[in-house]
């Protein structure tokens, strides 16, 4: 890892060294749209799925239950989170078809990490808002998609349909955890789609609280 990547890894380990033990219990109340994303993956039989920023492994476990014929892979920059994810995956009996590795979502080589050059589905759930240089994550993910594969994203939106006081309070609170909604997400996705010939579906959820995007690579 570069010096910047190592610094971010240390920061995430520091933030989540203790929080990881209660992360899933608390985050279910405000990380909205995660299960909708998983349901919308529509993984083909025997397909491969990669999560960037897999955290505690919660989403991988839910997806493994939903798609019993698929194989799953997860990358996270925090070693502390990966330890929690590995234990959770094993506890739920999915170790046989789930592989985890430490890596930076903005610059990773899945073939080196997993011996898997491309994936049918890649998803990012509330991780872009925590990644420095997050814009690099999109082309890195698209480059790791199999032809006809799709990238699925859910994250905080601009909250433009919610009261101003709510938006201000939410953003101030998120900043305490080094989380920043990516207001330019749609524009970045549109630019990468134009560059690669991929197609984009983009929707706002819960009056703008969250956004959900699907980028589909050409076959």
Automatic annotation (TrEMBL):
GO-annotated biological processes: methylation
Keyword list, A-Z: Methyltransferase, Transferase
Keyword Methyltransferase: yes
SUPFAM superfamilies: S-adenosyl-L-methionine-dependent methyltransferases
GO molecular function: methyltransferase activity
Residues covered by the Methyltransferase domain: 49-149
InterPro entries on file: Methyltransf_25, SAM-dependent_MTases_sf
Pfam families, alphabetized: Methyltransf_25
PANTHER family linked to this entry: TRANS-ACONITATE 2-METHYLTRANSFERASE, TRANS-ACONITATE 2-METHYLTRANSFERASE-RELATED
Protein's recorded name: Type 11 methyltransferase
Organism in which the protein naturally occurs: Mesorhizobium alhagi CCNWXJ12-2
